[in-house]
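Extended Data, panel c. Modelled sequence:
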Amino acid sequence: MNAPLPHDSASLLERPGSRRSAVRGGRRAAPALLPAAPRMALVADFLAIAALDPAVESLRAAPAPARLLMGGEVVEHAADFEQARTDEPGLLIDVVAEADLARHPFRVAYVAGEPVVAEDGRRFVIESAATLRAEPRISTVRLVMACRRTFVSAGDRVRILHHLDESGTGRLVECAAVVQNAADGVAAVLALAVEGLLAVDITRPIVPETPVRRRPLPFTDPFGF
């Protein structure tokens, strides 16, 4: 399930200073190809990323068909998902497996990087394995989501959230240090990120300095805090 590394042993053999003589006497084995990710696995990755992205305010599946402008043409298309985001008015998204890209109506625009926009201004994008499983984000997302079943006591919740109320943005190692009841303080902090109470930078690897901050409550605060 891991994304391919940006370099492999076959490519390293072509670099200056590497041991080319080790492969001169025989045929070089073709690099192994990872099996294509099925669409439902990509949808699961997409939903996990959306859950941890603080810019995503809401997400709904199967929105009504929209009239999309591509070049001089207008195409009516029902996207897989619609996101309401803080950084743009709306986003229409298709999650497409690599094997299905060739049959997608907007494949030419996707390959060329041409913008596709609905008549109402919402942008349309295609998410594929190449975008959803880009590193280091996908590895970070999976590490965070793996902590979703970690039990966080009421006391630890209050301590973590209070620490961030006091500090604004804290380092992951500092937030984990205030945990008293969980066996793994880092997992407890990341579990609250899965719940949507905290925001963690998922664009970089998990390290002690990973910034953590509170997210707005997903419901109205009855106490007006």
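Residues 1-26 have pLDDT under 50 and may be disordered. This feature is highlighted in the accompanying rendering.
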